[in-house]
Amino acid sequence: MTEKITKALQLVKDCGADGVLVSDPANIRYLSGYTNDTGVLFLSEKECCLLTDFRFLYQALEEAKGFRVIDIGKQGYESLVNELCVQNSVKKLAFEKHVMTYREYEAYKENVTAALVPCDNVLASLRFIKTKEEIELLRTAEHIGDMAFSEILPYLKPGVTELEIAARLAFSMKMHGASEESFPAIVASGVNSSMPHAIPSERPIQNGDFITMDFGCVYKGYCSDMTRTVVLGKASDKQKEIYNLVLKAQTEALRALKPGKKGKEIDAVARDIIREAGYGDCFGHGLGHSVGLQIHEDPNCNMREERVLQAGMIMTVEPGIYVQDFGGVRIEDMVVLTEDGYENLAHSEKKLIEL
User: pTM value?
Assistant: First the structure.
């Protein structure tokens, strides 16, 4: 039994259960090495099993070393899980309530004799601190984003649409080794950039536009995330004011970032700078979040985050200002906390670029 499994079972025991059904794909991958989304893990003190169907059986056998791999066949997940509970003397079976649907819960409740114990994603805490190997994969993923950004800049000319820019970013990242995007790219120009999560549209970019690009990729399972905002043509005084304020907020937040600080303390550094400049109502999201096998992981840097940051955690630092009917700016880097500070995994230019 691996150290990861031992820690997982201890977390489950703390929830009052003696076994666990793992259905979150990220947790399945982290604990077993199985990279497909179809399947569940059954973990107990006696044995560790991966249940999937025939389509993915050979993949599971190849990837989930040390696990008993079971083809659900015609029997189905619920009946097999019940058999495993009986065989392994599991009386209380934890399940991940953040991913299990109500329909699935009802099916397990009907077919499994063990008591079902809801756990609120406690296994995700196993992934808070990244290993050296994980950090290298995240570093590569962010580097792919850097290359995509450098390649998109010459393409940004009047008449090119937001949708075209998003497509080219995705293409560039895949050409550099990414398997997919870590999330659909946000490309927002002109007044659209005042919407933090704008959906790319057919709007052609124009001279004088802010162009905000928030994008990332997946490299060997691990995600990247970065945002850069540029101006097409000459920036106005107000654009320069807003951009430089966001950059200052990010710079100071990064300077304050180190182990031992609470996430809300880092958020406050950037938020106070923006508020004191009169734009407090224009920064409505958190400063950042962790990244790993999923694009949004815990812990966070926001106004509510009480958890203490630790070395080996990955965080984004992404302040923004969004002014209705004008436009907005966001600058985002992905960093890894070190023993005495941080290392920035993003290296793209952050001074205001006027194209």
Answer: 0.95
